[in-house]
Amino acid sequence: MSRVIQVVDSPARAAAVIRMTVPQREMPSVMKPAIDEILAVLKAQGVKPAGPLFNHYLSMDSGLFDFETGFPIDAPIEPSGRVRPGELPAAKVARTVHFGPYENLHHAWGVFTALVRSEGLTPAGGLWECYQEGPESGPDPSNWRTELNLPIEG
């Protein structure tokens, strides 16, 4: 993980999302079908993703993840199946980039959150990951990049 923390005002972004609540261990099995479903709905409605895939975690209590997975969009969509219009919220965020496999994200979040707190910043609740480079970009996970966004107070 990059040790660089940026503090930025992240604007709200319209998105096409599927909301799920699953145990952490089920994340790998639910992601691909959800991504495929969102992309199929976008294609059917003539809308292209306007940025990388993200997961917006609303709650992670007791290993149960309540989250939205989706893509930013620049045109409105109609609900279809599990896919709904949504948004990444506007927020002041602490941001960094994790380099490596998704299996290490839990650890990266722990390190990142500790760094944020050591800088005197206070997390405000919720967080999101933007998957900038992943398995589709090559088989070597050391080249994968995930942007970590932690809303902060102030």
From TrEMBL:
<protein>
    <submittedName>
        <fullName>Bacterial transcription activator, effector binding domain</fullName>
    </submittedName>
</protein>
<feature type="domain" description="AraC effector-binding">
    <location>
        <begin position="3"/>
        <end position="153"/>
    </location>
</feature>
<dbReference type="InterPro" id="IPR010499">
    <property type="entry name" value="AraC_E-bd"/>
</dbReference>
<dbReference type="Pfam" id="PF06445">
    <property type="entry name" value="GyrI-like"/>
</dbReference>
<dbReference type="InterPro" id="IPR011256">
    <property type="entry name" value="Reg_factor_effector_dom_sf"/>
</dbReference>
<dbReference type="InterPro" id="IPR029442">
    <property type="entry name" value="GyrI-like"/>
</dbReference>
